[in-house]
Design a protein that fits this description.
Elements: H1 24-51, H2 56-92, E1 99-100, E2 106-109, E3 117-119
Antiparallel strand pairs: 1-2, 2-3
Helix pairs in contact: 1-2
Region (Disordered): 1-22
Length: 121
Amino acid sequence: MLVRDKRPAQRTGQGPHRAYPPDLLPRLQTLLADLADIDFAYEKHLDALQRNSGDELIKREMLERLRLYHEKRRALVLAELTLLEGHVRALYGIKDRTASGKDGKKTVSLFRRGTRRWTIR
């Protein structure tokens, strides 16, 4: 027999055990959305360039410029995420656990265990 739990549902992020201070969560969400937008735009432009049937030398140069532009834009957002993470770690007294990934690239862990890791390329 199933018994319904009559306790009121508590939404995540409410009450005294909020994961982040209220001013940090919107900034984190904005930065992650910016990162997703940058990656999506890069993939879209990369696909368009690869489908282009123009001169291969010009195409390679444009692909390299696109890659460098993407890396620069992405690095700016990742730097802000790193600063935000440092702020949260200082706020909660968490030691820095930045490590190198399997491929030797620096990875930035975001706040909680089990969350996605972003790689600085």
